[in-house]
Design brief:
CATH superfamily of the largest domain in chain B: MetI-like
Helix content of chain B: over 70%
Helix content of chain A: 40-55%
Radius of gyration of chain B: 26 Å
CATH architecture of the largest domain in chain A: 3-Layer(aba) Sandwich
CATH class of the largest domain in chain B: Mainly Alpha
Shape of chain A: globular
Oligomer: heterodimer
Order of helices and strands of chain A: HEHEHEHHHEEEEHHEHHEHEEEHHHHHHH
Number of helices of chain B: 14
Distance between the termini of chain B: 26 Å
Largest sheet of chain A: 5 strands, mixed
Number of domains of chain B: 2
Number of strands of chain A: 12
CATH topology of the largest domain in chain A: D-Maltodextrin-Binding Protein, domain 2
Strand order of the largest sheet of chain A: 2-1-3-12-6
Chain lengths: 434, 312
């Protein structure tokens, strides 16, 4: 080869390489063939399971692949926090996954993506038994009457307390009837500046994690986030003020509430005996190294709303990659969320059962609680989830306004009145398209 | 390249026609070597830059394919955005503190390490090791160092009678904690650059200055600092660009809080694009930052031309 020919070939090769590198994310040929021809349909599932959950999920996937010769499920582990970002990039590139695990609070925005598959018909099929899912899960998967996801996870918030600390200080074990006054007194008794100990803590990074804690308290005060027609803020109400004043008096007056502004320390401090109580969910239980108890959230004395909680359900969302792959994805999700598999996954991971029928199975619940003490209290607490966050696409903006308001109150930079009015103005502006 | 040309020249007759062709093929070979990098930069660098310029004139939520043109509406909105103004302000304060602090700490450590003593490579490694610590570890270390109730920093302040501070939980202090954290993280880089530059400062100058009666500080001020100026210019530009793009440390510690006290431009635009689904608006913010970076870098180069001493 002459020098010239060599260089030309080199250039041609590099160009070819560059081009193939860009297009290599195209699906492989086998994935487009139909199951009828005896070939395998490949589907991609993007999920965020790690550790125990990762192993349990991998077990289920290999079970499915063994028992369904026409379909091959391939998984890609992605941090849940970045899932939507990654999915959006892939949607733009025309290569979304077949199935992605997406947070419930994203649902109204996810529903706007054109390639998201309408699963309403699927959900109606008797095989799915849609009404067996928790009402909170159903609500989060439904946007404007259209079902865009199959429930992947359900959580809720309750109070977890350090049993040995309670014993040491001679504090009464929290009862299911306790009120926020009881709670405040208990938190005060736990607080000891000398020992650098505080009564309780909530995440205060102004993210949705901060906001949903407050929302549960708001609902217990019998308040609402938005007006029934989702057109205006409804949280700047006496109920909203009651919930917010509670936080303010504990954080500012009693100094019994530790505002974890980086949302990273509360679990370690709880394990170190520096925080007496946490308002948190079942996902934290496995990480606690001190003996702990779980109790429902206190109620406001005299409030008609009683004990409530908030669920943070997440969804499996299907993206349209052609009919065969769509059907295969639906087959997989129907199988994955069926009672037998949901049961197996909960037992292995301690995640709350996504189906009500499982929660009614006392033997199963007992088995779960034995593996992870306290889980039963969280399962029972699902019955206290009575309201859901509004399914509006402006929710991220509302959440941000509320997050700022709550943190401003916790840090004593704004009064509850100022903070809520400011957040309400931002909410109204967002809802009116501003 | 020269070697290749030499080889070809020896192998082939030196007829002028051939030589012209050869010169052409040299050209081609050069392109051949450059093409892979050029294509990659084009696809992953230039294309997104052009694309985001277009995006900044559109309304895009990244969710739906429709991206209507809105002209300069995104840019006009930025001018009335209080949080964006705060983010710009924080970015300026951060850069104005971070860049000089890193350079000053860096030059002093570099001068201290520029001597022949036992175990010097150990000290030099120690100075550089902060660069090797991943940002996530850096963030966790500093979050605990500056923890209000249990952190080492408050404990140390307590010994000298200063009351405990809230640090990352205090909107008035959080940004300075991030400055401290990033100065710590980048000092190693400044040290290495200055150490390398110090090797190029000739000993004769110090000897001559000593004969003229200059003390240690006088020769540091009149010899070391001027002769390090090309390195200082490089560091000023490099650190400024990195400071204007601050994101990781904020994302990992405060998420822009408390109360937007650490919201910087890149964090703000990331939040707008991926949490608020307002990508067009975020692209406009990115372009404002891009233009600002361009202007600042240009000014630094101009100042550098005037004040940096290059030995010829």
């Amino acid at each position: 080869m002459t020098h010239l020919a060599r260089t030309t070939t080199a250039i041609a090769l590099t160009c070819a390489l560059a081009i193939t590198a860009c297009s290599s994310s195209k699906p492989d040929a086998s994935s487009t063939s139909s199951p009828g021809t005896g070939k395998t349909v490949n589907i991609a599932v993007w999920e965020g399971y790690t550790d125990t959950e990762g192993k349990a999920f991998a077990d289920l996937v290999s079970q499915f692949n063994r028992t369904h010769p026409g379909i091959r499920v391939k998984t890609l582990e992605t941090n849940n926090d970045f899932m939507l970002q990654k999915v959006l990039t892939a949607v733009r590139g025309g290569t979304p996954p077949d199935i992605a695990y997406l947070y419930g609070s994203w649902a109204p925005n996810v529903a706007k993506i054109p390639s998201v598959v309408d699963l309403t018909a699927t959900a109606r099929s008797p095989e799915v038994n849609w009404n067996d899912f928790w009402p909170a899960e159903q609500q989060v998967a439904t946007v404007d009457g259209k079902i865009i996801g199959i429930p992947a996870l359900v959580d809720n918030l309750a109070i977890v307390y350090n049993k040995s600390l309670f014993n040491k200080l001679g504090l009464a074990t929290p009862s299911p009837e306790w009120t926020w006054d009881d709670f405040r007194n208990t938190a005060k008794a736990l607080t000891d500046p000398q020992a650098k100990r505080v009564g309780w803590s909530i995440p205060a990074d102004a993210s949705e994690d901060t906001v949903w804690h407050w929302e549960a308290i708001l609902w217990e005060a019998d308040g609402d986030i938005l007006t029934p027609d989702n057109s205006k803020a409804a949280f700047n109400s006496p109920q909203g003020l009651q919930a917010t004043h509670l936080l303010r008096s504990m954080a500012v007056d009693d100094k019994s509430l530790y505002a974890d502004t980086t949302n990273s320390k509360y679990a370690d401090l709880f394990n170190a005996g520096k925080i007496g109580m946490l308002m948190t969910g079942p996902w934290d239980l496995a990480g606690f190294t001190v003996p702990y108890g779980v109790q429902v959230m206190p109620s406001f004395a005299g409030s008609a709303a009683g004990h409530q909680s908030i669920a943070g359900p997440d969804n499996w969302v299907v993206f349209d990659r052609g009919n065969d792959r769509k059907q295969a994805a639906i087959t997989f999700l129907t199988w994955l969320t069926a009672p037998a598999q949901a049961r197996q996954f909960s037992l292995q991971t301690g995640d709350l059962p996504i189906r009500q029928s499982l929660a009614n199975d006392t033997a199963f619940v007992g088995q779960m609680d034995k593996a992870l003490p306290g889980v039963q209290a969280f399962i029972d607490n699902l019955a206290n989830v009575k309201k859901a966050r509004p399914q509006v696409e402006e929710y991220p903006k509302i959440s941000q306004a509320l997050g700022d308001a709550i943190v401003a109150v916790l840090l004593n930079k704004r009064t509850p009145e100022e903070a809520l009015n400011q957040a309400a103005a931002a909410t109204d502006q967002a809802l009116s398209g501003g | 390249m020269a070697a290749v040309r030499e080889l070809e020249r020896n192998r082939q007759p030196a007829a002028s026609r051939v030589r012209v062709r050869l010169r052409g093929s040299d050209h081609l070979a050069g392109w051949g070597f450059v093409t892979p990098a050029a294509v990659l930069i084009g696809i992953f660098g230039l294309l997104p830059i052009g694309w985001s310029l277009l995006l900044s004139f559109q309304q895009s939520d990244l969710l739906t394919p429709s991206t209507p043109w809105v002209g300069t509406a995104n840019y006009r909105r930025l001018m009335h955005d209080h949080t964006f103004a705060l983010s710009v302000q924080h970015t300026i304060v951060y850069t104005a503190l971070f860049v000089p602090a890193t350079m000053i700490v860096g030059v002093f450590i570099a001068v201290a390490l520029n001597r022949k003593i036992r175990g010097i490579s150990l000290y030099r490694t120690a100075a550089y090791v902060t660069m090797a610590v991943s940002t996530i570890n850096e963030a966790i270390i500093f979050m605990w160092l500056f923890e209000p109730s249990f952190g080492v920093v408050n404990r140390a302040l307590g010994w000298v009678g200063i009351p405990a501070q809230q640090w990352l939980s205090n909107p008035d202090q959080a940004l300075y904690v991030i400055v401290a954290m990033t100065v710590w993280g980048w000092t190693g880089f400044a040290v290495v650059v200055y150490l390398a530059a110090l090797q190029g400062v000739p000993q004769e100058l110090y000897d001559a200055a000593a004969i003229d009666g200059a003390g240690g500080f006088a020769s540091f001020r009149t010899i070391t600092i001027p002769l390090l100026s090309p390195a200082s210019l490089f560091l000023a530009i490099w650190l400024s660009i990195s400071a204007l793009q601050l994101f990781d440390e904020v994302y990992l510690t405060t998420r822009g809080g408390p109360l937007h006290a650490t919201s910087v431009v890149v964090y703000y635009l990331w939040d707008q694009a991926f949490n608020q689904f307002d990508a067009g608006y975020a692209a406009a913010a990115a372009y404002v930052l891009f233009m600002a970076t361009l202007v600042i870098t240009y000014l630094q180069f101009r100042l550098g031309d005037r004040y940096a001493h290059y030995r010829r």
